[in-house]
Amino acid sequence: MPEIEKQLPERGSTSVSEETTYSTETVVALQSLAHMQGLYSSFRKGVVEFLAFDQDDQLADDDTLELIHSVQSFDCFQLALVLWKESPLPTEEELRLAGLPRKRLPNGLTRRGLGDLLARSDELRRAMIERCIAPEPTEMFLRRAERLTKDLIALGLVEEHVEPPATARANWKPLRGTLRLHKMMCHCGVLCSRFRHAEATSPTSTLYTLATSQP
Predict the structure, then answer these.
(1) Is this model's pTM higher than 0.90 or not?
(2) Which residues sit opposite 158 in a β-bridge?
(3) What angle do CA 154, 157, 158 make, to 5 degrees?
(4) Residue 134, strand partner residues
(5) Which residue has the higher pLDDT, 109 or 65?
(6) List of residues 6+ apart from 21 with CB closer than 8 A
(7) Helix 179-201 vs helix 74-86: angle between axes, to the nearest 10 degrees?
(8) pLDDT at 130 over 90
(9) Using CA atoms, how far apart are residues 87 and 54, in angstroms rounded to an integer?
(10) Is 124 in contact with 43 (CB distance < 8 Å)?
(11) Nearest 5°: CA angle at 161, between 156 and 163?
Protein backbone atom coordinates (compact mmCIF):
# COMPACT_ATOMS: atom_id res chain seq x y z
CA MET A 1 0.00 0.00 0.00
CA PRO A 2 1.28 3.52 -0.76
CA GLU A 3 2.25 5.69 2.15
CA ILE A 4 -0.61 7.94 3.29
CA GLU A 5 0.68 11.33 4.34
CA LYS A 6 -2.49 12.52 6.09
CA GLN A 7 -5.33 10.76 7.86
CA LEU A 8 -8.08 9.37 5.60
CA PRO A 9 -11.64 10.46 6.45
CA GLU A 10 -13.97 7.89 7.95
CA ARG A 11 -15.90 5.65 5.56
CA GLY A 12 -19.18 7.28 4.48
CA SER A 13 -17.97 10.79 5.23
CA THR A 14 -19.31 13.42 2.82
CA SER A 15 -16.78 16.09 3.73
CA VAL A 16 -13.84 14.84 1.69
CA SER A 17 -11.37 17.57 0.83
CA GLU A 18 -8.34 17.35 -1.45
CA GLU A 19 -6.38 18.98 1.37
CA THR A 20 -7.16 16.23 3.91
CA THR A 21 -5.34 13.29 2.36
CA TYR A 22 -2.86 12.39 -0.32
CA SER A 23 -0.57 9.58 -1.33
CA THR A 24 3.02 10.29 -2.33
CA GLU A 25 2.87 7.40 -4.77
CA THR A 26 -0.20 8.83 -6.49
CA VAL A 27 1.35 12.28 -6.81
CA VAL A 28 4.53 10.85 -8.31
CA ALA A 29 2.50 8.67 -10.70
CA LEU A 30 0.42 11.64 -11.86
CA GLN A 31 3.49 13.77 -12.50
CA SER A 32 5.49 11.01 -14.19
CA LEU A 33 2.71 9.87 -16.52
CA ALA A 34 1.77 13.44 -17.40
CA HIS A 35 5.44 14.08 -18.17
CA MET A 36 5.56 10.99 -20.41
CA GLN A 37 2.37 12.05 -22.19
CA GLY A 38 3.73 15.54 -22.71
CA LEU A 39 6.96 14.25 -24.22
CA TYR A 40 5.12 11.88 -26.57
CA SER A 41 2.74 14.70 -27.58
CA SER A 42 5.79 16.86 -28.34
CA PHE A 43 7.19 14.10 -30.55
CA ARG A 44 3.89 13.75 -32.44
CA LYS A 45 3.74 17.52 -32.91
CA GLY A 46 7.29 17.52 -34.27
CA VAL A 47 6.47 14.81 -36.80
CA VAL A 48 3.54 16.85 -38.13
CA GLU A 49 5.53 20.10 -38.26
CA PHE A 50 8.40 18.43 -40.13
CA LEU A 51 6.48 16.23 -42.56
CA ALA A 52 3.00 17.66 -43.12
CA PHE A 53 3.91 21.05 -44.59
CA ASP A 54 6.10 22.01 -47.52
CA GLN A 55 8.34 25.07 -47.80
CA ASP A 56 5.30 27.18 -48.71
CA ASP A 57 3.37 25.94 -45.65
CA GLN A 58 0.99 23.98 -47.88
CA LEU A 59 -0.56 20.91 -46.26
CA ALA A 60 0.43 17.55 -47.74
CA ASP A 61 -2.00 15.40 -49.74
CA ASP A 62 -4.28 12.84 -48.08
CA ASP A 63 -2.04 9.83 -48.83
CA THR A 64 0.96 11.54 -47.23
CA LEU A 65 -1.09 12.48 -44.18
CA GLU A 66 -2.04 8.82 -43.73
CA LEU A 67 1.66 7.91 -43.76
CA ILE A 68 2.43 10.64 -41.24
CA HIS A 69 -0.29 9.34 -38.95
CA SER A 70 1.42 5.93 -39.06
CA VAL A 71 4.80 7.46 -38.17
CA GLN A 72 3.23 9.10 -35.11
CA SER A 73 2.49 5.70 -33.53
CA PHE A 74 4.60 4.62 -30.57
CA ASP A 75 5.73 1.45 -32.34
CA CYS A 76 7.00 3.51 -35.25
CA PHE A 77 8.71 5.87 -32.82
CA GLN A 78 10.64 2.91 -31.39
CA LEU A 79 11.72 1.76 -34.85
CA ALA A 80 12.64 5.26 -35.99
CA LEU A 81 14.76 5.81 -32.88
CA VAL A 82 16.71 2.59 -33.42
CA LEU A 83 17.17 3.25 -37.15
CA TRP A 84 18.36 6.78 -36.35
CA LYS A 85 20.87 5.61 -33.74
CA GLU A 86 22.26 2.88 -35.98
CA SER A 87 22.58 5.09 -39.06
CA PRO A 88 25.75 7.08 -39.90
CA LEU A 89 24.06 10.06 -38.26
CA PRO A 90 24.36 10.82 -35.38
CA THR A 91 28.12 10.39 -34.98
CA GLU A 92 29.82 8.07 -32.52
CA GLU A 93 30.89 11.06 -30.42
CA GLU A 94 27.35 12.45 -30.29
CA LEU A 95 26.04 9.07 -29.16
CA ARG A 96 28.79 8.80 -26.54
CA LEU A 97 27.99 12.22 -25.12
CA ALA A 98 24.30 11.31 -25.00
CA GLY A 99 25.11 8.03 -23.22
CA LEU A 100 23.47 5.99 -26.01
CA PRO A 101 26.00 3.69 -27.70
CA ARG A 102 24.98 1.86 -30.82
CA LYS A 103 23.43 -1.56 -30.25
CA ARG A 104 23.36 -4.11 -33.03
CA LEU A 105 20.12 -6.06 -33.39
CA PRO A 106 20.50 -9.87 -33.47
CA ASN A 107 19.35 -10.02 -37.11
CA GLY A 108 20.81 -6.67 -38.10
CA LEU A 109 18.84 -3.63 -39.17
CA THR A 110 16.37 -5.57 -41.25
CA ARG A 111 12.61 -5.84 -41.15
CA ARG A 112 12.91 -9.09 -39.20
CA GLY A 113 15.31 -7.51 -36.74
CA LEU A 114 12.89 -4.65 -36.20
CA GLY A 115 10.07 -7.16 -35.80
CA ASP A 116 12.09 -8.88 -33.06
CA LEU A 117 12.54 -5.48 -31.41
CA LEU A 118 8.80 -4.88 -31.32
CA ALA A 119 8.22 -8.37 -29.92
CA ARG A 120 10.78 -7.86 -27.14
CA SER A 121 9.25 -4.50 -26.22
CA ASP A 122 5.86 -6.14 -25.66
CA GLU A 123 5.90 -7.30 -22.02
CA LEU A 124 2.87 -9.56 -22.36
CA ARG A 125 4.18 -11.19 -25.52
CA ARG A 126 7.59 -11.77 -23.91
CA ALA A 127 5.96 -13.48 -20.92
CA MET A 128 3.97 -15.70 -23.30
CA ILE A 129 7.14 -16.61 -25.20
CA GLU A 130 8.97 -17.48 -21.97
CA ARG A 131 6.12 -19.79 -20.98
CA CYS A 132 6.12 -21.35 -24.47
CA ILE A 133 2.56 -20.16 -25.04
CA ALA A 134 3.56 -18.18 -28.12
CA PRO A 135 6.20 -18.95 -30.78
CA GLU A 136 9.30 -16.83 -31.36
CA PRO A 137 9.90 -14.94 -33.56
CA THR A 138 6.33 -13.84 -34.08
CA GLU A 139 5.02 -13.18 -37.56
CA MET A 140 2.57 -10.63 -36.19
CA PHE A 141 5.37 -8.27 -35.16
CA LEU A 142 7.28 -8.96 -38.36
CA ARG A 143 4.26 -7.92 -40.44
CA ARG A 144 3.86 -4.76 -38.36
CA ALA A 145 7.55 -3.91 -38.74
CA GLU A 146 7.29 -4.44 -42.50
CA ARG A 147 4.26 -2.15 -42.72
CA LEU A 148 5.85 0.61 -40.63
CA THR A 149 9.14 0.33 -42.52
CA LYS A 150 7.27 0.70 -45.80
CA ASP A 151 5.71 3.93 -44.51
CA LEU A 152 9.07 5.26 -43.33
CA ILE A 153 10.61 4.52 -46.73
CA ALA A 154 7.69 6.21 -48.53
CA LEU A 155 8.33 9.38 -46.53
CA GLY A 156 12.05 9.34 -47.31
CA LEU A 157 13.03 8.67 -43.69
CA VAL A 158 14.52 5.21 -44.26
CA GLU A 159 16.21 3.55 -47.23
CA GLU A 160 17.37 0.07 -48.12
CA HIS A 161 21.13 -0.08 -48.23
CA VAL A 162 22.32 -1.71 -51.43
CA GLU A 163 25.47 -3.78 -50.91
CA PRO A 164 28.02 -4.46 -53.66
CA PRO A 165 27.22 -7.68 -55.55
CA ALA A 166 30.32 -9.39 -54.18
CA THR A 167 29.23 -8.94 -50.56
CA ALA A 168 25.44 -9.04 -50.93
CA ARG A 169 23.60 -11.78 -49.06
CA ALA A 170 20.45 -13.42 -50.38
CA ASN A 171 17.18 -12.13 -48.88
CA TRP A 172 19.05 -9.69 -46.66
CA LYS A 173 17.99 -6.07 -47.13
CA PRO A 174 19.62 -3.85 -44.50
CA LEU A 175 17.84 -0.64 -43.59
CA ARG A 176 19.40 2.73 -42.89
CA GLY A 177 18.03 6.01 -41.59
CA THR A 178 18.40 8.94 -43.98
CA LEU A 179 19.50 12.52 -43.44
CA ARG A 180 15.82 13.43 -43.52
CA LEU A 181 15.19 11.11 -40.55
CA HIS A 182 18.11 12.69 -38.71
CA LYS A 183 16.69 16.17 -39.21
CA MET A 184 13.19 15.11 -38.16
CA MET A 185 14.37 13.39 -34.98
CA CYS A 186 16.49 16.42 -34.07
CA HIS A 187 13.47 18.66 -34.59
CA CYS A 188 11.28 16.42 -32.40
CA GLY A 189 14.03 16.29 -29.79
CA VAL A 190 14.15 20.07 -29.59
CA LEU A 191 10.40 20.21 -28.94
CA CYS A 192 10.70 17.56 -26.22
CA SER A 193 13.57 19.50 -24.65
CA ARG A 194 11.47 22.67 -24.62
CA PHE A 195 8.64 20.78 -22.92
CA ARG A 196 11.00 19.47 -20.26
CA HIS A 197 12.41 22.96 -19.66
CA ALA A 198 8.93 24.49 -19.38
CA GLU A 199 7.90 21.77 -16.94
CA ALA A 200 11.02 22.26 -14.84
CA THR A 201 10.52 26.02 -14.59
CA SER A 202 6.77 25.75 -13.95
CA PRO A 203 6.09 22.44 -12.15
CA THR A 204 2.38 23.07 -11.67
CA SER A 205 1.66 23.74 -15.33
CA THR A 206 1.97 20.19 -16.70
CA LEU A 207 -1.25 18.63 -15.49
CA TYR A 208 -3.25 21.77 -16.14
CA THR A 209 -1.96 22.17 -19.68
CA LEU A 210 -2.56 18.53 -20.59
CA ALA A 211 -5.99 18.47 -18.99
CA THR A 212 -7.13 21.54 -20.90
CA SER A 213 -5.46 20.76 -24.25
CA GLN A 214 -6.09 17.05 -24.76
CA PRO A 215 -9.38 16.00 -26.43
Answers:
(1) no
(2) 177
(3) 85
(4) none
(5) 65
(6) 4, 5, 6, 7, 8, 9
(7) 120
(8) no
(9) 25
(10) no
(11) 160
